[in-house]
Design goal:
The structure holds two protein chains of two kinds. By secondary structure, chain A is α+β, with helices and mostly antiparallel strands. Chain A has helices at 36-45, 114-122, 143-153, 160-164, 177-188, 196-203, 217-221, 228-248; strands at residues 6-13, 22-29, 73-76, 79-82, 95-98, 105-107, 110-111. In chain A, a hairpin with a 2-residue loop joins strand 6 (105-107) and strand 7 (110-111). The longest helix of chain A has 21 residues, at 228-248. The termini of chain A are far apart. In chain B, helix 1 (6-33) packs across helix 3 (55-79). The radius of gyration of chain B is 18 Å and the shape is globular. The relative contact order of chain B is 0.13. Classes of the chains: A alpha+beta, B mainly alpha. The A-B interface holds A 78-79, 164, 166-167, 169, 171-173, 204-217, 220-221, 227, 229-230, 232-240, 243 and B 3-4, 6-11, 77, 79-84, 86-88, 90, 92-93, 96-97, 99, 163, 166-174, 177.
């Protein structure tokens, strides 16, 4: 029988939210078609470092395993991406796994993505359809616009764009590209547009749109190919108009 | 206050970088270019500028106040970024970093440049003419410092025009942003040639 091929894996670990990160090396038996999740599962099965020292299993988040939930995002060989769709055969060794440290690390590769969900609340990334009586059907959306908006709706709030953005960090309150692009999505919706001034005013506040420095890493990094920089430029235009409407007054805040 | 109104501060920062600061830099380099026609031509062009009515008011309103706001708020913006060129080596990410590096360098360069020229008139009553600059760049180290300063300024302005157009929402599609990158880089090369030829005329 051929000798078992081993993978070199280096994991940046952290025992608790406040403790210092450190690196551990592992040797993982190779199997064909492995993804990074299955590598982590192999470490969990046998939590022994490359030097033969017994250690704790590595903690990470995962859910859908088909790149639609965003939970398993981490920095793999220096690039933020989903570990489920990161195939070992396509990656150079040693595999280096790090948490997306733009977010607070909970433990090892597990991070707290709450800041994005808070931003979605802040920018009102939803369409209010509830009333005290039946509001009936909303306006019809042109099919071509629906197709276009569908691309923006693919966002899974994974956080890769925030991790790749040089302006999202501990010195800045920038909410990052994902929540901004959602404002464009909901403002484009015929019913959503009925509150578009509220969303625009929200992103014209602290940590909003103006913090974008146009490094345009987000659009390169987005696993869903969402045109994030186009969304930001589009919102810049809407915000310019909104700024003048706010100052000079307008009867067209929502249309 | 600063954070809540940051949208307006950032828009003001973007606007002032172009008008009046960027416009002033362009005019400044074009006037300097007259030095390529000799000492007398430069002194004449410089005297025309100095003969503007209400000069101190014009200097403060058109140059010093907008420039200081752009410079100091810009330093704050630059230091809130955490560059990641090692992860993303794209043109845009390079320009993002260069915009911040040139900006910080320019604060130092322009402060020194104003001290060496305009402030010499205020402090020592020196005449601001061809000879003053010729003395400055007779030192080869200073000449290099000035050439780097001029190229930093022309890059910062050219890329700043692109950022202005994106920040105000004028160019939205990736195609228009790409075409504008080329146009602003052509502008960068042309203005750099003007600026560097001008400074070499004093050397």
């Amino acid at each position: 029988m051929a000798e078992q091929k081993m993978l070199d894996v280096e994991v940046q670990r952290q025992d608790s939210a406040d403790s210092q990160p450190y690196w551990e090396k592992f040797k993982v038996p190779y199997r064909p078609n492995m993804n990074v999740i299955s590598v982590l599962m192999a470490i969990r099965e046998n939590p022994v470092t490359a030097d033969g020292k017994k250690t704790t299993p590595v903690t990470w988040d995962m859910n859908c395993l088909e790149e639609v939930c965003g939970a398993c995002s981490m920095v793999i060989n220096g690039r933020p991406r989903q570990s489920c769709s990161a195939l070992v055969d396509k990656l150079p060794q040693p595999l280096k796994l790090q948490p997306m440290s733009t977010f607070p690390v909970i433990r090892d590769l597990q991070i707290d993505r709450s800041r994005m969900f808070d931003s979605l609340k802040k920018v009102k990334a939803w369409i209010p359809i509830d009333g005290s009586y039946d509001l009936g059907e909303g306006p019809r959306m042109p099919e071509r616009k629906r197709e276009w908006a569908y691309e923006l709706s693919k966002c899974m709030t994974c956080g890769v764009c925030l991790e790749s953005c040089p302006n999202v960090n501990s010195h800045s309150s920038f909410m990052g590209p994902a929540p901004l692009s959602q404002v464009r999505l909901f403002n484009a919706h015929p019913t959503g547009a009925m509150n578009k001034d509220e969303r625009l005013n929200a992103i014209m506040g602290d940590g909003g749109l103006a913090n974008c420095g146009n490094s345009q890493n987000c659009v390169v990094a987005c696993p869903k190919g969402i045109p994030l920089t186009t969304s930001i430029a589009s919102l810049n235009r809407s915000a310019t108009v909104q700024m003048f409407r706010n100052f000079f007054g307008s009867d067209h805040m929502v249309d | 206050m600063l954070k809540d109104r940051e949208f307006y501060w950032r828009r003001l920062h973007s606007l002032l970088g172009l008008i009046p600061v960027g416009l002033f830099v362009t005019v400044h380099l074009l006037i300097n270019y007259s030095a390529t026609n000799g000492e007398a031509a430069f002194n004449k062009a410089s005297a025309t500028m100095e003969s503007l009515p209400f000069l101190p008011i014009v200097e403060w309103v058109v140059i010093y106040i907008p420039l200081m706001f752009h410079a100091f708020y810009g330093v704050y913006i630059a230091f809130t970024a955490k560059p990641n060129l090692n992860r993303f080596g794209t043109t845009r990410n390079w320009f993002f970093v260069l915009q911040r590096v040139t900006g910080i360098f320019l604060v130092i360069f322009i402060a020194w440049h104003i001290f060496q020229t305009r402030l010499q008139k205020t402090i020592n009553g020196a005449e601001i003419d061809y000879n003053l600059m010729a003395d400055v760049v007779s030192n080869p180290g200073m000449l290099i410092f000035y050439i780097v300063g001029i190229i930093a300024a022309t890059f910062h302005l050219s890329n700043g025009i692109w950022s202005f157009l994106v920040s105000w929402g004028l160019i939205q599609s990736p195609k228009s942003q790409k075409v504008t990158t080329y146009i602003t880089m052509i502008f960068f090369v042309l203005l750099s040639v003007v600026g560097v030829m001008a400074i070499l005329a004093f050397a």
